[in-house]
């Protein structure tokens, strides 16, 4: 039994019958159902291995995480991004392959040897060798958040402008800031320092853009970036945010503005400081429901939409997608119990 037999029984062309299995989003639902019903009646099953060998395509999209693979499920925003990628894969009848990296010399080979038709990369550092490897591979690749690299499309926000706007708004009432930052580089070294001792640029582009935006806002407010306390975390978790806040506590005024690079970090900081700094205010990023309930002003970061856009571009590099995601500031809705972030 062949696909041509299925097409004849369903009353469609062989190409339409093929698309019903390989690119279902391109076939009307009624037609797709007719093809599948005909296939069931005839006992036809697509030979996926043979089709891949013949076409050179696996119908799999690879997602490369520069974080530990469990991060994709532990971090709410990474999970949203992965859900967006998965939505497109379902719509287009593609499989999704998660490709782990470990920060070792085998990462590039591990990624390039994956049996996938294209790559979606989670944001990483400028010096990540996986970037060079993927950029030189003929398969299409898209990265969320950067770094931008010839041969790899980039879907991102203007993190600098958003960080500048958020911090400027938070500093209008005269509060003094402290910053909780994402890792600066792939070493993910935890540290507590000041703006004066930070490197001029961070290899992680998201960290770099947000730090530069915070610095510009602090200096425009007439405050000293050099003396601003900064805690750099190893991971984007509430536990890391709480630990960083406890280390910053003696550097912060009672009514300080805690500027965190994510709502997860801000929520952890709030939990650590709510007794010692009850008048502190918080800035976050991601506009999460938990952050909103605690009154955290946050930058919208629609990672599910970014995941969808990355996947669509990886599957169809010629599509005219807008690669820059708009952002807004979302004020929190204060007034719920102090235990909401636990």
What does this structure look like?
This protein is of the alpha/beta class. It has 3 domains: 3-46, lambda repressor-like DNA-binding domains (434 Repressor (Amino-terminal Domain), Orthogonal Bundle); 60-156 and 303-315, Rossmann fold (3-Layer(aba) Sandwich); 159-300, Rossmann fold. The protein contains 14 helices and 12 strands. The chain has helices spanning 3-10, 14-22, 29-42, 48-55, 71-74, 76-92, 107-112, 129-135, 159-170, 205-220, 238-248, 263-273, 289-293, 303-315; strands at residues 60-65, 95-100, 118-121, 141-144, 153-155, 177-181, 191-194, 229-232, 257-260, 281-285, 297-299, 329-330. Helix 12 links the parallel strand 9 (257-260) and strand 10. Helix 1 (3-10) packs across helix 3 (29-42), helix 9 packs parallel to helix 10 and helix 11 (238-248) packs across helix 12 (263-273). The longest helix is centred in the first third of the chain and has 17 residues, at 76-92. The model is unreliable at 335-342 (pLDDT under 50).
Comma- or semicolon-separated keywords:
14 helices, 342 residues, 41% helix, 3 domains, five-stranded parallel sheet, Rossmann fold, 434 Repressor (Amino-terminal Domain)
Task: Give the quaternary arrangement of the chains.
Answer: single chain
Residues in helices, as a percent range: 40-55%
Shape: elongated
Strand arrangement within the widest β-sheet reads 7-8-6-9-10-11-12
The first-level CATH class name of the largest domain? Alpha Beta
Distance between the termini: 59 Å
Give the name of the CATH architecture of the largest domain: 3-Layer(aba) Sandwich
Poorly predicted spans: 335-342
Number of domains: 3
Q: What class would the helix/strand composition place it in?
A: alpha/beta
Figure out the total of helices.
Answer: 14
Cα gyration radius (Å): 24 Å
Percentage of β-strand residues = 5-15%
Number of DSSP strand runs? 12
């Amino acid at each position: 039994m062949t696909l041509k037999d299925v097409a004849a029984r369903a009353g469609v062309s062989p190409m339409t019958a093929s698309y019903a299995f390989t690119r279902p989003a391109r076939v009307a639902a009624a037609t797709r159902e007719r093809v599948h019903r005909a296939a069931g009646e005839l006992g036809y099953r697509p030979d996926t291995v043979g089709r891949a060998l013949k076409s050179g395509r696996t119908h799999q999209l690879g997602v490369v995480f520069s974080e530990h693979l469990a991060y994709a499920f532990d971090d709410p925003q990474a999970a949203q991004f992965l859900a967006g990628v998965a939505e497109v894969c379902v719509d287009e009848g593609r499989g999704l392959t998660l490709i782990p990296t470990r920060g070792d010399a085998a990462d590039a080979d591990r990624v390039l040897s994956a049996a996938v038709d294209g790559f979606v990369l989670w944001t990483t550092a400028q010096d990540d060798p996986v970037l060079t490897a993927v950029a030189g591979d003929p398969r299409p690749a898209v990265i969320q958040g950067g770094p931008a690299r010839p041969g790899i499309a980039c879907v991102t926000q203007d993190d600098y402008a958003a960080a500048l706007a958020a911090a400027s708004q938070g500093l209008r009432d005269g509060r003094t800031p402290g910053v909780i930052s994402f890792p600066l580089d792939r070493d993910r070294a935890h540290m507590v320092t000041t703006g004066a001792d930070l490197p001029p640029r961070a290899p992680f582009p998201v960290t770099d853009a947000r730090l530069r935006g915070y610095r510009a806002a602090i200096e425009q407010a007439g405050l000293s970036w050099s003396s601003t306390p900064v805690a750099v975390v190893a991971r984007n978790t509430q536990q890391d945010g709480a630990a960083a806040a406890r280390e910053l506590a003696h550097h912060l005024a009672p009514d300080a503005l805690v500027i965190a690079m994510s709502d997860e970090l801000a929520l952890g900081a709030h939990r650590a400081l709510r007794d010692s700094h009850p008048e502190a205010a918080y800035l976050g990023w991601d506009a999460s429901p938990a952050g909103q309930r605690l009154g955290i002003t946050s930058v919208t970061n629609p990672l599910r939409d970014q995941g969808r856009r990355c996947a669509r571009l990886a599957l169809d590099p010629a599509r005219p997608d807008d690669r820059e995601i708009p952002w807004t500031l979302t004020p929190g809705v204060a007034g719920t119990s102090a235990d909401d972030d636990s």
